Amino acid sequence: MRSTVVGSYPVELKEASGFKDKLLKSVGAYDPFKDSIKQAVFSQLDAGVDIISDGQVRGDMVSSFSKFIPGFKIEDGNTFIVSKIRNPTGEISVKDLLYAKNLIKEYYNGNIPEGKGIKGIVTGPSTIIHSSRITSFYKEKDDAIIDLAHSLKKEVDAIENKVKPVYIQVDEPFLSTGMVNMKVAREAIEILHENLSIPLAMHVCGTLQDAYKDLSKFNVEILDFEFAGNNVNLDILEKNISLFKGKKIGFGCIDSSKNEVDSEQETEELILKGIDIVGEDNILLDPDCGLRRAPMDVAFKKLKLMNDIKNHYM
Ligand SMILES: [Zn+2]
Q1: How does pLDDT run across 100-123, given as a tens digit for each residue?
Q2: Which cofactor does it need (predicted)?
């Protein structure tokens, strides 16, 4: 049984302080987010998380991808589709992931222990398109989704080849909303999955009531859902576990909508219930969703609680 995170971590931006940082700032080369990545990586490792993220500290899940992809325009924080979606202008998250992976090495004095590592995270094509407004070129969102899947595939491949993560996760929160054409969403994930030699995970938060049957058919090795801040998903999983045979379940067991540390007893009961339904070998523990909105110390304590319980049962 291993633990992971969904992605984003709280950010406290630091001003350039030392001589080197000030010098970099004076030539416009200071990156204030480097410290945030370091903080996110070390906090996750200190809390005992096995498969960490780079903290996704640079911004919201849509624009951090769409700003590197021709066809999109971002204005006042909104994303518009203005022309045909093409391949990214460069690698999007590879540099941060490599930096984060090196920090894991540093944390463990040179060798990343077995079972620990980093995952790459890409916002899913359906979620990006449904968060954007089409102003020209496309008549149907579905066509834009498929073009974007081909574009994001370049990033997925770059992450696989250069970062060599434990796995890659696609975030598709929109798939539980009923707004998305599930057939097209599935085809898009199929494009991302092609020729991948590491597992692909898909995170979908929200209530699964109307989506679980479709989601169980997606070609991914891991499906990640929320079970802490949600009172129907556990029941759905239990009654339909046979649908998810052959897949691992990312088991959200920490309520990311609450900015306070979860109850130890309730979390432990939930985890035990999860193990009971899914089986110890097929469960990955993580928070329901990203912890971006929680205060730094609360985010840390939430992750630590989850890992302390995990270690107690291993
Ligand atoms: Zn989520």
Answers
A1: 999 999 999 999 999 999 999 999
A2: Zn(2+)
